[in-house]
Predict the 3D structure of the following.
Amino acid sequence: MEIVAALLLAFALAAYLRFRLINAFVGAFAMLGAWGLIYHGVYRVFNLEDKGQSLLMAGSVLAVGLVAWVALMVLTLVVWGYA
């Protein structure tokens, strides 16, 4: 868990320093780390017997999280008057 937090911190620092390639690489790596944590957490929390079920549920949880994140970004742009 600390590894993903460190990756998200590195992502924020790369965004601050405006290194686009490093930002994209670290952001993708942080998303993969978050997906891995969700995958293992869903498998243990819901006591799923099949790895395929945990893969589908982890993908669903990550997809809902990304949709909510995009909705918040759009709402922020609308409220701030950029859209």
In short: The two ends are 36 Å apart (CA to CA).
